[in-house]
Each structure stands twice: as structure tokens, then as C-alpha cells.
Amino acid sequence: MKERLLQLEKAALSEISSLKNKEAVLEFKNKYLGRKGELAALTKEFGKLPPEERPIVGEFINSIRGRIEERINNLLTAFAQSEREQRLKGEKIDATLPGRYLALGKRHPITQVMDEVVKIFSGMGFAVAEGPEIETDYYNFEALNIPKDHPARDMQDTFYIGEDVLLRTHTSPVQIRVMQNKKPPLRVIAPGKVYRRDSDVTHTPMFHQVEGFMVDETITFGDLKGVLTAFLHSLFREDTAIRFRPSFFPFTEPSAEVDIQCVICNGKGCRVCKGSGWLEVLGAGMIHPMVFKAVGYDSERFSGFAFGLGIERIAMLKFGIDDIRLFFENDVRFLRQF
Ligand code: DAH
Asked: Would 104 be classed as within a structural domain?
């Protein structure tokens, strides 16, 4: 019996070295070690042995089974490993390929300029206020000393919703709303959308303005010039030339328009500045006594300045854009550039 067992081991161990894959190994395992396998067949004859030999032969069978199992397990591990290596080779990553970028959203250029303007004034201690886009005639015109026959009230310019209700044509009414509710000293800016019946390369029916004002007991035109100069130097360049020109607004007296040296031609004269070398960027002035009267401020005691600027116009100058409508067409090829 021992002889037959040794032969079986020999046959098994020589066969095992010719096995090529996992399937063949499993088949082999079944053939020798399975319940109907060769080792099991020999074990059946166990009962014919004299009792004193049984433990010895039993131990011998177990040791053969152990050795064959060990070889099988080694082989299976080796096959699994080479299969894994094979798979990894196929999945090889080229770490030198450029990465795939996620498309990142960006703020709209108008929002960018708006945020920058707000940031500069916040840095000078101005608070931010907002008012409604649907306004009454009183806030948009009357309280700002714009009389009934003023051209700004013309049906050509204003979108009327009703007799006394309209889409605000400027952010100046926020001045009135804030001053009605708060006492000086005040330093406030009011960014927002405004509406006018107008449409060409430099006008859209909706655009953005930032209104600003400062009121206290000793505010002078010097404060106006100082604050607006600091603002424009921060928004454009530290050495941008600035000039204040006399002008007229119903809600300020005296009034001024503020120009910067043309950013396109540096003051030499070009198509954008119409040969003048200057670009108008702001309207401003000392708040009119009639406006103070409308909000119940004593104009003998308080003084203040106010200003208004158009965000689209500033964005066009900053980015060198010659058609305002590009901002509102939502063409990503345009928007991606900012
Ligand atoms: N509200 C004016 C406009 O829309 C802009 C403006 C000019 C605002 C002068 C002001 C100012 O506060 O003082 O054209």
C-alpha cells in the first residue's frame, strides 16, 4: 500500500509541473484530492489493513495530501499574481499626459467690476444700501428735485408701469430712502440695476449703476474731489490723470462731471475719446438743499456730496470693449475671456 501511495505522489508531483493555468490546477486537485479522487480511492482500502498499521498509513496519507496541497496552493498563488500583473500592464497610466481640467465658472465681467467698485468704497468706510427697481415718481424724480417738465421724465427715456410707478432710471432714489431712515453722518453706496428706453452700441435698456453719497456737518467739495480721485486711482491706475468739469444735475449744486485721461490712447486723442483725450466716467456734486429738504435734513447744518457711475461704461473702458451689448448676449466665448 505504501508503495502505491508513493507512486501516486510521484505521478501527482510530476503532473503538477506541467499545469498551465488555474482551471488545469483545479481539475488536477479534483483528480487527486477530490472526494472521488485517487487518494480517496486508496484510502478506501484502509479498512483492509491490520489495525496496528492503520495509524502509520493514515499519517502517511495525510502527509502526501499536505505536500500536494501545498504545491497546488503555491501554484494558484503564482497564477493569481501573474494574472494581476498582466491586468495592470493593460491598465498602465501615462503620468506624463496633461490632466483633464474641470470647466470652472467665473463671475460675469459686470459683476466683477461691480464687486471691485463696492470693495474700494467699503475700504473707505462706505456702507452698502439697496432700493427697489420698481420705484415711484416721487423717489425717482420729485424728491430729487426733478420737476414735472424735466426731460428725464419723457416717455422716451422712462419705462412707466403706471401713472406714478416706473422702473427706476437711476440709483439716486436710494439716497432719498436712506436719508429718510437714517441721520448723518452717512457714507453709503447703492449698487443696482436701472432701466431706460435706449438701445445702441453704448446703451442697453437695463444697465448697472453705483450711487454714492456722504453727509455730515462739514463735508466740502474738497471731500468730493479727494474721495473720487482716490477711487478712480484705485480702479484704474495710480497715475491716471483726472479732471473735474462743471456740469448740471437737478439734485446737486454745484455739479460736476469727472473725466479720466483716455485709457485707450493715453490722452493723445482717438476714436473712443472722440479726439479729446478724456473720457467721462462719473456724475457728481454737492447735494442740493431741495433734496435735504425732501428728507427733512437741515441744509444749514448738514452738507454732503453725491455721485453716480455706470458700471457697463467702466467695464468697457477697463476691458477695451466697444459694444455694450456683448455683456448681455451670454456668449461663453466672450465671457470666458474675463
Ligand atoms: N443719477 C445720475 C444719472 O443717472 C447720475 C448722478 C449724477 C448721480 C450726479 C449723482 C450725482 O448722485 O451727484 O445720470
From this structure: no
Question: Which of 42, 63, 90 corresponds to the end of one domain?
Answer: 90
Kindly list the protein residues whose Cβ atom lies closer than 6 A to any atom of ligand 1: 170, 172, 211, 249, 252, 283-285, 306-308
CA separation, residue 87 to residues 81, 92, 326 (Å): 10, 9, 53
Do 232 and 86 share a structural domain?
A: no
The per-residue pLDDT for 175 is: 98
CA of 105 to the centre of ligand 1 (A): 33
Q: Which domain holds residue 293?
A: 109-335
Helices (H), the chain: 2-16, 22-33, 38-44, 54-90, 109-123, 137-140, 173-181, 221-235, 289-294, 311-319, 332-335
Q: Is 139 inside any structural domain?
A: yes
User: Closest residue (by CA) to atom 2 of ligand 1?
Assistant: 308
pTM, entire model:
0.72
pLDDT tens profile 206-218: 999 999 999 999 9
Q: What is the pLDDT of residue 23?
A: 86
Give me ligand 1 centre to Cα 168, in Å.
13
Q: What nine digits make up the cell of 306? A: 453725491
**For residue 255, how far is its CA from the centre of ligand 1 (angstroms)?**
9
> What total number of domains does the chain contain?
2
User: Ligand 1 mean position to 172 CA, how many Å?
Assistant: 6
Per-residue pLDDT of 260-316, as tens digits, reads 999 888 999 988 889 999 999 999 999 999 999 999 999 999 999 999 999 999 999
pLDDT confidence of 118, banded at 50, 70, 90?
A: very high
Do 114 and 86 fall into the same domain?
A: no
Pocket probe for ligand 1: among 141, 172, 176, 280, the residue whose CB has the most ligand atoms within 8 Å is 172
